[in-house]
């Protein structure tokens, strides 16, 4: 299903101009709460695993999150609602910016208190598939005093701190925007996603 015409025009324009955008309202509060409940339940059941970095995804000291990938063909009801909306956004970005985004990958992430993710780019070594990073936040009533900002480093050498507030989707260009996750004083839950192009070295 297509999104209403123009729904994501502001996001597309900001990504083209600035390389990033904070998009509210992708899902209803009820849908967002369902995802948060599922993420918390998977965490409590021990189903989220220490994440790695790089193509081999071995555990790393750079990052302290626990993750669980969404499995295509086995999405839960809340995951399907999220993935459908992300797909509408992906198609709108293709229409407005001609990005050639063919699919996306997503995982739940929980950062325990005191853990973060050091400054990095989201492109994997030798792999140019990731074009747009999207992080959907699941934390109700987050207060800045609790820390946990995503610090986004901008081209003009300034930075922006974005707090992980439920319902907000942070979008940025994977190849250009260095960023880090600052430690928090409570569990920090999100869905990290990447919209991908066909790999340039993959042939046709
Ligand atoms: O959770 C966030 O705000 C960002 C996570 C991140 O940078 C990543 O998973 O690559
Ligand atoms: Fe990242």
TrEMBL record:
* GO biological process terms held by the UniProt record: cellular response to hypoxia
Q: Name one GO molecular function term.
A: peptidyl-proline dioxygenase activity
Cofactor(s) named in the record: L-ascorbate
Keyword list (alphabetical) reads: Dioxygenase, Iron, Metal-binding, Oxidoreductase, Vitamin C
Chain ranges of the Fe2OG dioxygenase domain: 85-197
Q: Which InterPro entries match?
A: HIF_prolyl_hydroxylases, Oxoglu/Fe-dep_dioxygenase_dom, Pro_4_hyd_alph, Pro_4_hyd_alph_FE2OG_OXY
The family database entries (Pfam families) matched by this protein are listed as:
2OG-FeII_Oxy_3
Output this protein's name. Fe2OG dioxygenase domain-containing protein
Identify the taxonomic lineage of the organism of origin: Bacteria, Pseudomonadati, Pseudomonadota, Gammaproteobacteria, Lysobacterales
């Amino acid at each position: 299903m297509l999104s209403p015409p123009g729904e994501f025009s502001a996001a597309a324009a900001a990504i083209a101009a600035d390389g990033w955008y904070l998009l509210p309202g992708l899902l209803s509060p009820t849908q967002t709460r369902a995802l948060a409940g599922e993420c918390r339940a998977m965490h409590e059941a021990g189903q989220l695993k220490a994440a790695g970095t790089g193509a081999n995804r071995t555990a790393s000291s750079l990052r302290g999150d626990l993750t669980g990938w969404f499995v295509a063909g086995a999405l839960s009801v809340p995951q399907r609602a999220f993935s459908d909306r992300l797909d509408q956004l992906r198609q709108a970005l293709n229409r407005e910016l001609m990005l050639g985004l063919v699919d996306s990958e997503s995982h739940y992430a929980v950062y325990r208190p005191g853990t973060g993710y050091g400054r990095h780019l989201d492109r994997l070594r030798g792999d140019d598939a990731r074009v747009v990073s999207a992080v959907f936040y699941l934390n109700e009533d987050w207060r800045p005093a609790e820390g946990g900002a995503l610090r986004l480093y901008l081209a003009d050498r300034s930075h922006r701190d974005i707090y992980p507030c439920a319902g907000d989707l942070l979008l940025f260009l994977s190849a250009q925007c260095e960023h880090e996750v600052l430690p928090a004083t409570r569990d920090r839950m999100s869905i990290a996603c990447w919209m991908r192009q066909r790999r340039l070295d993959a042939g046709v």
